[in-house]
Amino acid sequence: MSKKLVIFLVIFTLVFSVGCQNQNVTNKQISDSSNEIKYEVQNDGGAFSSKDIIYFIMTDRFYDKDKENNDFPDVNKDDPKAYHGGDLKGIIEKLDYIKSLGVTAIWITPVCKNQYGGYHGYWITDFYKVDPHLGTLSDLKELVQEAHKRNIKVILDYVVNHTGNKSPWLNDEKYKDWFHPKKNISNWNDQKQLEEGWIFGLPDLNQNNPEVKKYFIDNAIWWIEQTGIDGMRLDTVKHVPKDFWNEFAYNIKSKYPNFSLLGEVWNDNPRYLEQYHKIGIDSLTNYPLYNGLRKTFTRFGKANSLVNAIKMQSAFTNPELNGIFVDNHDNKRLITEAKEYGEAYLKQALTFIMTYPGIPIIYYGTEIAMEGGDDPDNRRDMEWDKIGNSEMLNYFKMLTHIRNSNEALYNGEFELLNYDSYFLSYMRKKGNSKFIVIYNLQNKEKNITINLKDDSSKYTDVLSSKTYNIENGNLNITMKPLEVIILTSN
């Protein structure tokens, strides 16, 4: 055998053996050409499923129970950009009200210590301390314990993208490599800019720095261990590299397999959102569906927007785990934006998220038809004086009762039925249980026909108890202006 051939065989053997060893580092580790997916992570929802309903609370604006933490200079109930006094004890005080809504979980805004004026929780200066405006770590532990007694799960809003601009790290040489250089985002379609730019002038953390990565993985696990929370809502997910989220999710799920991660990915493209599910985030805020919903259930709205959003849902692996919502703390409330007939459109929108596959997320106050314009007007104090005589609250409770009592509505098949620009219909079914939901989007009567060939069921409207028969394979209904009809074959 020639000397050159021997050398070649030796080199080939070494390369091959090293390659095999690398492939067997861990049975959880997988390869990906983009280097974004290093670990295979269980992303099936953890303790959460499509049966859940989440109630989203901005703690400072919900209920002021503890007056002793109101003596800070940045507490001013008359200033919409200041603290208003809501606290963790306030949420504890209102847990029975929350339970009465029929929801199964609460999501609360970040509790970490914030800089002056950070009532919302997103300007963090200390990631290991509870903000004293909101209470103490003991208060947070009590909230989780009291919620669990009522079978209510707790989701903590969690921030890794940035700090407040008064963070002590900014003046400490030790942390100089923890931040990206200050640079605004000029191209929102450039992923590198999204991940390294400073949004709203907030110092952007560099998660590619191993120290930063370790700090936040350890910090997240510390909050879970200390409080017993059931999940985290991850803020500004698309502004943080995917490989960080993959390792973050892997470390948390390795220790807490039932823990759930809900990611805020503010983008209209389901395929873009789905990338973050693949790396280990269980659920995503379904902005594509939200945008379709908001363009449909409003003055001059048309069904086509929502129908197109529904058709795009096939891009998701597990669409039923995504959060679907009407309002949140970043946008005008639907009832305000819809203007004329806002309450009727809000009823339609609430009906949709309660009868469509997904996990409904209800922003505090939406259940009582609270108004709210652009931030910070959409973050008004909870209007507790309305709950005693709120038609919307009664309607909302009826919806949650119907949903919670019928598996077809939270775990059934979905079928889009007939629609045009001004009406929409679809079916949910599980076994012999069937529901048909119909919307008239116009403020005038509308005659609609739904094709249901091979269906001889007799349907009853759960709202009015009126019965409908199928004639020649069609369901013919004259709908009232802006009416919602929920039919069941049960």
Short description:
The chain has 14 helices and 18 strands. Helices cover 31% and strands 18% of the residues.
Please identify the structural class as seen in this structure: alpha/beta
CATH superfamily of the largest domain, by name, is Glycosidases
CATH class of the largest domain: Alpha Beta
Taking all residues together, what is the mean pLDDT?
93
Tally of strands: 18
* Overall tally of domains: 2
> C-alpha Rg, in Å?
25 Å
Largest sheet: 8 strands, parallel
How does the SSE layout of this entry go?
Elements: H1 3-23, E1 54-57, H2 88-93, H3 95-100, E2 105-108, E3 112-114, E4 124-130, H4 137-149, E5 153-158, H5 191-196, H6 210-227, E6 231-234, H7 242-255, E7 260-263, H8 270-278, E8 283-284, H9 287-296, H10 303-311, E9 323-325, H11 334-338, H12 342-355, E10 359-363, H13 391-405, H14 407-411, E11 413-420, E12 423-430, E13 433-440, E14 446-451, E15 458-461, E16 467-469, E17 474-479, E18 484-488
Parallel strand pairs: 1-2, 1-10, 2-5, 5-6, 6-7, 7-8, 9-10
Antiparallel strand pairs: 3-4, 11-12, 12-13, 13-18, 14-17, 15-16, 15-18
Brief descriptors of the model:
490 residues; alpha/beta; TIM Barrel; Immunoglobulin-like; 8-stranded parallel beta sheet; 6-stranded antiparallel beta sheet; 18 strands; globular; disordered N terminus; alpha-amylase activity; metal-binding; carbohydrate metabolism; Alpha_amylase; hydrolase
